[in-house]
């Protein structure tokens, strides 16, 4: 058994009175990347919000390194080692790269550590973050989360709006973080890139985990993914095609 990272058991999360995530259970071990895949609106962000304490869970348990944290406010979960790079989160664009890091963690070594993690940012340390490329801004967001040394880092759609080549570079960075010991829970629309760096993948459909597979298995047999979370769209397309052929 690996070092216990994050354990989610039977978590239900509501938005506006509606159950969006229903009875979700999954583990995120330290030292590896766990991938969460699902169609738009399946409930991926809501699940991460529920785990991080952005939204309250209405039932179920969240444990970090075996300690129950689901009744804790968000900042306490973060202090305990749960990092979260939210979808659409932006850098402080008028602050420099260095100031963005120091805002997250004014500790003496945080800037040095961040630049060791992301040497690409070294030359830009005095540059205003708003002038960085999209990929560099995402690196800065990860660096800001990592200087707090989280045991677990949840990343929601880091690739939003970025070219595939840049996303591929970011995936290498994320894989390195996991190799260095962090447990990563990765939500990613570029499924094949995420699966290449992941160990286990969970598929979520309409707020429920419907399948858990090894990433290598999903890469070898893409039809599993197509049937699972593209299933509805292709079923509709096929039935339309059959109707056309019949007509
Ligand atoms: N603030 C909100 N109030 C009510 N319902 C919401 C709210 N935000 C999202 N939802 C609904 O919750 C469901 C899940 O949304 P969520 O953003 O968690 O999905 P997702 O899998 O992350 O999708 P995407 O890939 O598009 O980000 C969707 O049906 C969405 O319409």
From TrEMBL:
Keywords: Amino-acid transport, ATP-binding, Nucleotide-binding, Transport. Residues 6-231 form the ABC transporter domain. InterPro entries: AAA+_ATPase, ABC_transporter-like_ATP-bd, ABC_transporter-like_CS, BCAA_Transport_ATP-bd_LivF, P-loop_NTPase. It holds the Pfam family ABC_tran. SMART domains: AAA. One of its GO terms (molecular function) is ATP binding. It comes from the Bacteria. Belongs to the ABC transporter superfamily. This is ABC transporter ATP-binding protein. It comes from Georgenia halotolerans.
